[in-house]
Each structure stands twice: as C-alpha cells, then as structure tokens.
C-alpha cells in the first residue's frame, strides 16, 4: 500500500509539473534555445563580433571563439577571410591615438609664447614685420555670424576647454550656452543657400531677402544649447570646468552658481553668496578649487569637496563676511579658514580686485587690482612670489592671464596697453621684469578692457581705448596683425578658442559675434 501511495504521489507531482519542449538535463542546466541577440540589428555590433570571432579563431583560441559566437548569436561565414582585420584596425587606431597624444604634447610644449619671444631677438627683415602674406593674399578675420538680440549687454564670454561650447552672460542676469559646431555648420548651409539664391539655382526668380533676415534668428535658436537666468544683476564671471560639464557663473549681486549643463534642467549644484560683487572666477586645473575675485582686496579660494572658503589671514574678524550656502544640503554660514599668508601689508592689494587666474599646472595664481598692482602667489603655501606695483603707469590693472607654460603673465590695464611679464627674471625685491608691451597708450574709462593669448600664443588680443575694436598683435614683432571692428557698439567681452583661430565677442548691442579666419587681397 505504501508503494502504491508513493507511486500515486509521484504521478501527481509529475502531472503538476508543467511540461516544456526544451527540458533540462540531469545537471539541471537550461538547454532551451537562445534567442538571437538584439545587438545583431546594429550593423556595427555585428561586424565587431564577427571580427572578434575571426581573430580568436586565427590565433588558435577555438573555444573562446565558439563561446563568443554562442553568447552573441553571430553567424560568421568564411572564418579564414580577413581573419587579422581586427588586429590591423586596432594597431592603426593605437597608432593614431599615439600620434594625437604626441601632437598635443608638441602643441603644449612648442606652441608657446617663449618660442616667438626667442625668435624676436634675432634679426628680423622689414618685410616680415608686417601682416603675414602668402602671395597676394593676407590673413584676416571676418565676422562669420551674429546672433539675434539676447536682451542685455553681453559682459562676459568664455569658451569650453574643448572649444565646442561658448557661454555668454549679460547685464540682465541671462546666461546662454551656444554650440559653436552647430553654429558653424548652420552658417555654412546658410551661405550655400544664399549663394544658390543669388545665382538663381534654387528656382526662385526674385531676390527676396526674407530668408536672409530670418536666418540669424533661426540659427541662434538652433545653436542655443542652454539658457538660465538665476542672477538678478549683471553677470561678471563665467568659466567652464576643465574636465566635467560644469559651468561657473558669478554676478554683481554677489551670487556664485555652479551648475551642471549636461542635463536640460540645468541643475544648480552649489550656490555661494558673497557680500561683495563678484568680478572674476576661474577653476583650478584639477577642477577641485575655485578662485574668484570680488570688490574686496583679497582673493577667495573655494574647495569644492569640503565647500570651505579660504581668505587671507590679514583679513580681520569683522571683515569675514563671506557666507556660503549649499542648496542641496541646506548648509549655510560656513566659516572662512585662513589659507593665504601675507608677510605684510605691502604684499597685499589696497583696492578692489579686477581679475584672477591660475597657471596651467596649478602651482601659481595671480590677481590684479584697481590699485595698479599685480601679485603672483604660490599655489601651495599661498605666499606672494612676485609683485609689480604700478604695473600700468599707476592706472588700474583689469586683466591677468598666465601663458601655457606658466613662465609669463599677460596683463592689461586702463591705459589700453597689454604687457608681458617674465616670472623667470624676477629681481631681489620680489618683482618681475617686463619683456614686451602691445598697443598704443591711451586713457580708457572702461573696466571691461581685457587681453588674451591666441590659440598658439603667437598673438595677443587686446581691446582698444573705445572698445569698438579688438586688435591682434604679433608677439614676434609686436605689430598689429588684424582687427575685429564693430563700428557702433562696444565689445565688452571676448574669448579665444583653445585649438583654432576663432574668436567670440559680445557687446552693447546685446549680440554675440563669431569671428573666423579668412584670406583677403593684400
């Protein structure tokens, strides 16, 4: 009876168990048919796996080749055909990557201002001191595109480290990020369309200019990547993160925003409020610190990991009035830690700051002030290593920029002159030597005058006294090479692309202009 009961129980269990056409073996391993991988729908993935299987089969790894074929479901006809294609493509790609790395190292090593300053010490024929000419053609810059009105005077312009994005800020608190690649592509298509319309190739008999008038608005709308307006007053500082999709903006109301522009919502990661108006802000090359200048006499250094603000030790207790607010955690009122050291009052600024900058290796930082002084600090100990009093004939110094090697500093002042300082030729009094100046001296009543290096540091770009033009001076001979002129509107801010001769400027007409190279009759 017990045997019959066990048999019935076993029969009932067998009937309760669902029956599959693809059963399991004795080791309980599933042997049901594997569906074809979804990646086979993509031609690239299919070719990649086929090359991998052929390469493994050619190298003698038959088991690995069969495993890849079984896992991906790829069918490889004619295994012996192009069996070494993957190794050849990988070797070519590695060689191309190595060449790109070598070219970048050469660019960072040789395309520097020292190269042109060294060449200027040699004998220079008179015909080489003029603008560069090739045959009967001369190198010029043209206004490639002008955006539609942004609603406010453009005060600050900055270009991303890879040269693909350009950001601008206006006095109405608006910040806009443009895609330069999209702008150039759309402008090229518009130029072809206008040329075809002019020649009558598009079938239109008339010469209507409706499309020409609307082209700027359409291209501006399509090239605009991000737009945000958290600032309540003029945007005075703007800088891209060196490695992450982060944008730093600072306004005259004292707010400093750090936002992530990789997402359409423009998420604000951090917010800092200072009681002084913010004038300039830059990232440390490592991306872990922010250095910004205000109307106070001391620069501020902000740690992005701990969100601690560091100010000079010479600041008294009643002057510690910078407060930080993290909108994510809700923390506020963080204390200022003394991270800068001053040997005395002579080593500090006595008036409001105008601009700050980091060297490319992060070992040095510089600041300039309305008192006409220029100070260079050590990035580790924060001790002043060089100071220049009356750097621009007792007028305010409004701009300071490091060269790519960190050996030279380019400054601009309200005397409409840009000066190049060699940090390697410092004297015993903690000063430095001026090696060259650019521009014609003149009185400038605008704090917006700035100077910048070109992409290969062969030229220095500087605004003139009226701010109506941006002149480019050759470092080789200090002669004027070309000018970017907007007759009726001041150009308050401009930025130079890091790897090509492209300039983006903005001014009082509330528009952003894109300048690209061209060759014109000499």
From TrEMBL:
The keyword Lipid biosynthesis does not apply. Residues 12-30 have a biased composition (Polar residues). WD repeats lie at residues 346-387, 397-424. One of its GO terms (biological process) is mRNA 3'-end processing. PANTHER family: CLEAVAGE STIMULATION FACTOR SUBUNIT 1. This is Cleavage stimulation factor 50 kDa subunit. Residues 47-97 form the Cleavage stimulation factor subunit 1 dimerisation domain. It is found in: Nucleus. The keyword Ribosomal protein applies.
């Amino acid at each position: 009876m017990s045997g019959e009961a066990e048999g019935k129980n076993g029969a009932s269990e067998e009937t309760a168990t669902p029956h599959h056409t693809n059963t399991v073996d004795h080791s309980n391993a599933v042997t049901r048919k594997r569906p074809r991988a979804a990646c086979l729908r993509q031609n690239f993935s299919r070719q990649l796996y086929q090359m991998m299987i052929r390469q493994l089969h050619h190298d003698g790894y038959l088991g690995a080749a069969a495993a890849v074929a079984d896992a991906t479901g790829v069918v490889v006809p004619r295994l012996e055909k192009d069996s070494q294609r993957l190794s050849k493509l990988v070797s070519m790609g590695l060689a191309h990557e190595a060449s790109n790395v070598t070219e970048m190292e050469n660019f960072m090593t040789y395309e520097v201002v020292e190269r042109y300053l060294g060449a200027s010490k040699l004998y220079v024929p008179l015909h080489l001191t003029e603008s560069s000419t090739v045959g009967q053609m001369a190198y010029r810059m043209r206004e490639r595109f002008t955006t539609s009105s942004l609603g406010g005077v453009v005060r600050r312009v900055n270009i991303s480290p890879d040269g693909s994005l350009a950001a601008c800020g206006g006095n109405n608190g608006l910040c806009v990020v443009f895609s330069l690649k999209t702008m150039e592509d759309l402008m090229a298509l518009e130029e072809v369309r206008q040329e075809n319309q002019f020649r009558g190739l598009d079938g239109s008999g008339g010469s209507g200019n409706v499309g020409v008038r609307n082209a700027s608005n359409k291209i501006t709308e399509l090239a605009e990547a991000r737009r945000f307006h958290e600032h309540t007053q003029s945007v005075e500082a703007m800088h891209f993160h060196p490695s992450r999709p982060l944008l730093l903006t600072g306004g005259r109301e004292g707010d400093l925003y750090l936002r992530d522009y990789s997402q359409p919502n423009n998420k604000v990661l951090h917010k800092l409020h200072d009681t002084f108006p913010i004038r300039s802000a830059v990232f440390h090359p490592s991306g872990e610190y922010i250095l910004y200048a205000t109307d106070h006499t001391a620069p501020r250094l902000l740690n992005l990991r701990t969100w601690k603000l560091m100010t000079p030790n010479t600041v008294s207790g009643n002057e510690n009035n910078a407060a930080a607010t993290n909108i994510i955690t809700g923390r506020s009122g963080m204390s200022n830690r003394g991270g800068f050291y001053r040997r005395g009052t002579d080593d500090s600024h006595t008036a409001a700051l105008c601009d700050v900058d980091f060297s490319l290796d992060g070992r040095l930082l510089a600041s300039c002030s309305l008192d006409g002084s220029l100070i260079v600090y050590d990035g580790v100990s924060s001790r002043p290593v060089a100071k220049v009093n009356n750097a621009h004939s007792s007028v305010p110094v409004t701009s300071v920029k490091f060269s790519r090697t960190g050996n030279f500093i380019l400054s601009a002042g309200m005397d409409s002159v840009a000066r190049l300082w060699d940090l390697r030729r410092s004297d015993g009094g903690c000063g430095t030597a001026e090696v060259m100046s650019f521009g014609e001296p003149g009185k400038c009543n605008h704090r917006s005058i700035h100077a910048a290096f070109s992409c290969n540091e062969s030229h220095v770009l500087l605004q003139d006294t009226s701010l109506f033009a941006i002149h480019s001076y050759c470092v080789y001979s200090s002669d004027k090479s070309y000018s970017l002129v907007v007759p009726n509107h001041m150009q308050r801010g401009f930025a130079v692309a890091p790897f090509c001769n492209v300039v983006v400027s903005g001014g009082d007409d509330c528009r952003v202009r894109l300048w690209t190279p061209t060759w014109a009759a000499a």
